[in-house]
What we know:
By secondary structure, this protein is mainly alpha-helical. The protein is 53% helix and 6% strand. It is built from 3 helices and 2 strands, in the order αβαβα. The chain has a two-stranded antiparallel ribbon with strand order 1-2.
Amino acid sequence: MKLISGTITNLENAISYSTAKQKVISNNIANIDTPNYKAQDVRFNKALSNEMSKFNAIKTNEKHIDFGSASRAHQIVTKNNTNYQHNGNNVDIDQEMTAMAKNQIQYNALIDRLSSKYNSLKTVIKGGR
């Protein structure tokens, strides 16, 4: 029996992804004037596909659904295919600021949901009081 639901683990993984994305966006913005700096991004799908191809699960019942690895499912990739500035830098400040705002909203929603889950557990532990 699992003491903590899979939802909490999934929320923690999503928060980890959002935190990594925030760090990458901040790094891109900090290097906006650095010559030949190439912007980075955090990707989820490619890492998930790579992990799933290595994973071999054994089902004990045909009604069980497939499952995957719980390892970190995101990776940082460099965008090498564009140049926005004359110095070889490819950071687009408008795109980075938009991504930062979107990521901040997502992060806040995840934190609120995780906090709600822990408050529910606290209520159960206290016996509904």
